């Protein structure tokens, strides 16, 4: 059983290793002006759950969500060279779709040239926490597909990779228990065969001797995924609310003037 646990933990740790992607935006504004606009947008987006970090990796400013925030990004503000008049914004995230959303939001907030940014209007569908967790309980790939369906927050290749990994974890757990049960089950005795007694049921993965332990192992990736699913659903819905809020403000502005 320790062998099975090690294999399961290996796949979970492999999934947990963050692979950062990034986007870079150039602006003609000074670093200080850009910083004021960026921090205002981030505070509104995260509801004041963003922190200014000391380790800036050579940039002037670095912002990251607080640990309990559902967002997963780092935003750096600085210059290419010290004598440059303009500034740059570097967006890093373990979610490939999230930095693209932030790039689009920053581009609109900073009024950059659309020819340069090539941004498109964002459409993010609101997701339901109950549906997400129910699908995750049945099968994590189903919950991942639900969250990634028509949502720019999730890159298509990222969704496929996550679904494949969790499907593989389930397949490995069930396969290893099937192999273990098959190799340890005792055969019918001569007396059992003569009197037509029911044989051992250890090989039955659903109701056999090892079924409870197998379902316990299957619960491990589901619990871990449930935490990520909650954060991803929350951030997806917050982006949805923020974009709708911005749209309402822009519509009211047009009507008033």
Characteristics:
alpha+beta; 257 residues; five-stranded antiparallel sheet
**In terms of structural class, how would the helical and strand content be classed?**
alpha+beta
Query: pLDDT average, as an integer?
Result: 77
Report the principal-axis shape: elongated
Percent helix range: 55-70%
Number of helices: 9
Outline the structure in words:
Helix 6 packs parallel to helix 9 and helix 7 packs antiparallel against helix 9 (211-256). The protein is built from 9 helices and 5 strands; from the N terminus they run αβαββββααααααα. The longest helix has 46 residues, at 211-256. Mean pLDDT is 77; it is low at 114-119 and 249-257. With 257 residues, the protein is α+β, with helices and mostly antiparallel strands. A 5-stranded antiparallel sheet has the order 1-5-4-3-2, with helices on one face.
Q: How would you summarize this macromolecular structure in one to three sentences?
A:
This protein has 257 residues and is α+β, with helices and mostly antiparallel strands.
């Amino acid at each position: 059983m320790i062998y099975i646990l090690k294999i399961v933990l290996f796949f979970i740790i492999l999934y947990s290793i963050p692979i950062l992607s990034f986007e870079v935006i150039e602006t003609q504004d000074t670093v200080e002006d850009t910083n004021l606009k960026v921090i205002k947008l981030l505070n509104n987006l995260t509801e004041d759950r963003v922190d200014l970090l000391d380790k800036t990796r050579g940039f002037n400013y670095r912002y990251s969500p607080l640990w309990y925030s559902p967002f997963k990004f780092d935003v750096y503000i600085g210059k290419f060279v010290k004598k440059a008049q303009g500034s740059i914004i570097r967006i890093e995230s373990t979610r490939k779709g999230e930095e693209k959303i932030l790039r689009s939001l920053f581009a609109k907030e900073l009024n950059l040239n659309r020819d340069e940014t090539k941004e498109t209007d964002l459409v993010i569908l609101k997701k339901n926490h109950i549906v997400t967790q129910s699908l995750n309980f049945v099968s994590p790939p189903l919950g991942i597909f639900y969250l990634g369906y028509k949502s720019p927050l999730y890159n298509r290749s990222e969704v496929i990779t996550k679904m494949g990994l969790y499907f593989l974890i389930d397949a490995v757990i069930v396969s290893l228990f099937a192999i273990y049960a098959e190799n340890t089950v005792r055969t019918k005795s001569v007396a059992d065969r003569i009197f037509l007694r029911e044989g051992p049921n250890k090989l039955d993965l659903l109701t056999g001797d090892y079924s409870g332990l197998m379902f316990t192992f299957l619960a491990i990736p589901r619990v871990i995924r449930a935490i990520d699913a909650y954060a991803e659903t929350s951030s997806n819905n917050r982006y949805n609310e923020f974009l709708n809020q911005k749209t309402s403000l822009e519509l009211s502005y047009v009507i008033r003037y």
